[in-house]
Amino acid sequence: MFDAASKFHGSQLHCQRDDRLLFEQVEFEIHAGQALLIEGANGAGKTSLLRFLCGLNQVAEGELTWCGKSVSPSDRDYASKILYIGHKSGMKADLSCVENLSMLVRLDGEVADREIIEQALDQVGLYGFEDRPAGRLSAGQHRRVALARLLLQKKPLWVLDEPLTALDVQGIAWLESTIANHLAKNGMIVMTSHSVVGVNDNNLVRLPLKTGATAGIASKTEASQ
Ligand SMILES: Nc1ncnc2c1ncn2[C@@H]1O[C@H](COP(=O)(O)OP(=O)(O)OP(=O)(O)O)[C@@H](O)[C@H]1O
């Protein structure tokens, strides 16, 4: 169970790429058990925003607070709260599924032994693939291995960039229950996705990104006022 009082707030968020303003004055707030869905056309800046929240780029700027305390995306304590799974999995083609997951979990400052990783691979439908090099997986299998980190790491905030990509019906069903379970434990999620799974309307905050967006705060509290 994560802290029921958790709150994640962003304000004055803006992003410029070269000479082009992607978005500005964007604001959001989510609480424990809620998911933020970042929406927008191709090229609107969704990935740029996600990566900014994770301290992975400086192209976007803005103010962030975690539980009411101002944080910088590069703060170690703040970064330790986040599990980011982006378009690229970060896996090495010549390492096995177990070796890759072990490495990725360690890079995030955590540890998972082989038995635990095998159990996670089993849960994502990859029993028997433990020692297969990642470079010899299908696209959907590759995505399933990347998403197995959701079972291995205990972070309150998941930042997921198009997590449904390449998943089949069973994969989507697994992700749906995994997301619902995380939110039920007071976890939070910031994600981009063309469809929403595992989040009911009461727990979903939508953040549309459009150039010059000044549409006010994206939050459940404000929306209901
Ligand atoms: N490394 C980069 N250097 C310069 N411009 C970039 C770079 N990466 C992305 N861009 C540009 O920034 C804009 C926003 O890209 P971003 O990937 O954030 O959009 P997105 O909303 O996630 O798009 P999509 O829905 O297609 O994934 C695009 O116009 C893109 O061309």
Structure, briefly:
The chain has helices at residues 46-53, 76-79, 97-107, 114-123, 139-147, 149-152, 169-184, 220-223, and strands at residues 7-17, 20-31, 35-39, 60-66, 69-71, 82-85, 157-161, 188-192, 204-208, 217-218. By secondary structure, the chain is an alpha/beta fold. The site of adenosine-5'-triphosphate (ATP) has 10 residues, from helix 1.
Question: Percentage of helical residues?
Answer: 25-40%
H/E element string?
EEEHEEHEHHHHEHEEEH
| Small molecules in complex | adenosine-5'-triphosphate
Which structural class do you get from the secondary structure elements?
alpha/beta
Largest sheet: number of strands, sense, barrel closure: 5 strands, mixed
Look at the structure and give the mean pLDDT.
Answer: 93
Q: Find the CATH topology of the largest domain.
A: Rossmann fold
* CATH level-two architecture of the largest domain: 3-Layer(aba) Sandwich
Model regions low in confidence, pLDDT < 50 over at least 5 residues: none
Shape verdict: globular
Q: How much of the sequence is in beta strands?
A: 25-35%
**Treating each run of at least 4 consecutive H or I residues as one helix, how many helices?**
8
Counting DSSP E segments of at least 2 residues, the number of strands comes to: 10
Within the largest sheet, what's the order of strands? 5-4-1-2-10
CATH class category label of the largest domain: Alpha Beta
Say what oligomer this is. Answer: single chain
CATH superfamily of the largest domain: P-loop containing nucleotide triphosphate hydrolases
Q: Can you tell me the number of structural domains?
A: 2
